[in-house]
């Protein structure tokens, strides 16, 4: 039995350590570990609850818009208000601009380099060497697109800033709607940039993903994971008092052990058995849990908690969304969808569809109409829940507010803790996290060059910035690789 430790896994967002046990060249067990602590929820305690939108965005510089959205949905829910149509649509445009930027970032600047051979210079080196299979002309085009994708991502951020003020850490998302008003000049600028996005996605992103998927077809059978899927749903399409039940572009739903079902938020708990937190919150719901760190906890190996849905590990993200929406191209993959390449394929399809949906939304804006609904702080204890879909998957913020208008409990349950959280239970009844499950059974050809492992990790597009946040002393490792 040999152990391989990859720490940190690079070309992802944030700091993830991966440790695997290999027997006869095959991974027999895996541990995914977040090596930093987030702790931002504790900063919220005792504050004006409306500070949450700005403070909780600081969880992450890559996906702050998703945290702003979830945080504000929780406040809307707690205050019993909702945005007028302009406010709803502008929130959708802010979050979707970030989704496009983030998905292009993930493919061209993070994951594609596992399949596309860049020149032997930075940022393409250092790297694990892989079995590069793309034809020379396709490979060269993909390398060229690396630079073009940087420009396109900047333009996606400009689209976001038309409505959000700036990026990262938007300023326009407020309780009851947004603070930015639409006018024809902003709409025109947005559409112009969106047309550039659509051209890039249709002419570069989709063809490159299809070329990679064709050359690496065996990766439709590797990195399967838990095969349970969860989407909270996101991008509301209509008004209605309860944001959980209204019609949304991304559908909400579960897929557990082969069966589709509806989301019941009461089924969501967080486990800390193998996390560096005191056990007193183990298995509790996010509206009540106030965690305390326990750095010396025996058996713990991650700062991430383990969200569970009725005790089940669930994969979240573009594959979960498109599977639950029954997208015809993703559904046509059948079992092959649950794989490394299935995740890349679903993410690309989702990006193209989203860019078309955004065109409909922006044309629904009505200059001169209100963008925000006024609110009052409640005079009794309330709990707000904000569920949305960030680029990386289902994101929920839970916010308990006291009768004198102060934050009592705050919990953000983020996509990467769903995907990369540690195991729960013990022995034969242990439920490993989705990423751990995806890695077990993988054949590693060369333990000194474990490219197979990082391909699986990167297919989930983990954001450890979101999952964890504050530095802690390093834990011991057996052997260590730093890779690009
Ligand atoms: Ni993030």
Structure, explained:
The chain has a 3-stranded antiparallel beta sheet with strand order 1-2-3. It has a 3-stranded antiparallel beta sheet with strand order 7-10-11, covered by helices on one side. Strands 14-15-16 form a 3-stranded antiparallel beta sheet. A hairpin with a 5-residue loop joins strand 15 and strand 16 (407-413). It is α+β, with helices and mostly antiparallel strands. It contains 13 helices and 17 strands. The radius of gyration is 21 Å and the shape is globular. Helix 4 runs antiparallel to helix 5 and helix 4 packs antiparallel against helix 9. It is 36% helix and 16% strand. It has helices at 40-44, 52-57, 64-79, 85-111, 136-164, 184-215, 318-324, 328-331, 340-363, 415-420, 434-439, 451-459, 464-467; strands at residues 2-6, 16-23, 26-34, 36-37, 173-174, 177-178, 229-231, 234-236, 248-250, 253-256, 259-261, 268-271, 306-309, 382-390, 393-401, 407-413, 470-471. The structure holds nickel (II) ion.
What is the number of helical segments per DSSP (H or I, 4+ residues)?
A: 13
Mean pLDDT: 93
Profile the largest sheet: 3 strands, antiparallel
Range of strand content: 15-25%
Q: Helix amount, in percent?
A: 25-40%
The overall strand count is 17
Neighbour order of strands in the largest sheet: 1-2-3
> In whole angstroms, how far apart are the ends?
26 Å
**Cofactors and ligands present?**
nickel (II) ion
Write down the overall geometry: globular
The secondary-structure element order is EEEEHHHHHEEHEEEEEEEHHHEEEHHHHE
Which parts are unreliable, with pLDDT below 50 for 5 consecutive residues or more?
469-484
Rg, nearest Å: 21 Å
- Secondary-structure-based class equals alpha+beta
